[in-house]
Design a protein that fits this description.
Blueprint (H helix, E strand, L loop, with lengths): L2 E6 L1 H4 L1 E4 L1 H8 L1 H6 L16 E4 L13 E4 L4 E4 L1 H11 L3 E5 L8 E5 L11 E5 L2 E7 L4 H4 L4 E2 L9 E4 H9 L5 E4 L9
Antiparallel strand pairs: 1-11, 1-12, 2-3, 4-5, 5-7, 6-7, 8-9, 10-11
Helix pairs in contact: 4-6
Length: 191
Amino acid sequence: MTYYRIKPDLDTYGWFELDYEKMLKTLGRKTFSKFTETDASIADKWDNFEARFEPPDGEVVVSIRPDLTTWGGGCHLVLNEKAFSVLKPLLAPYGEFLSAPSEGEEYRIFNCRTTKPADDSKSQKKLVDGLQEGLISLDFDPADIADAPVFKTDFDLFRSLYCDQRFKDLVREHGLTGIEIREDLATSPLQ
């Protein structure tokens, strides 16, 4: 089975941003700082936080919006209405959708609640002075991820989302914009 890393096209579409101070106040420090690293639901505390797109470097405004992007270090998928209608049936069992309106458009953040382990025999962390700086290699045991069309891993400190062929095929079939689906699993989420 082939699986991929989801990378946002930040050069074209910019960054999806939420008001962190409002989120921190609403969710509480513990929930806010840990929800990426757990598979827990936060839907009961979510407050439809208003979102915005920060333009790519050198741009004044974001002129076009993506169908998909990522948020929060890379392990949350952001979907517009088109992407939501296409991907909801596939993704719903593996996480939750949180409303995040942006300038009159409805976006949903997919809070992935599916964490999968890396295959330690084929994965290696890049350490500098004892701290993880990135990855040298990353792989997964197909038996561990066979059921999940999208997932995250603690091996990369929850910095990316990974997907399978089903997800990739739907994105391509429906012409969804805003992300690259890459085979290079071990690079930085920004590369």
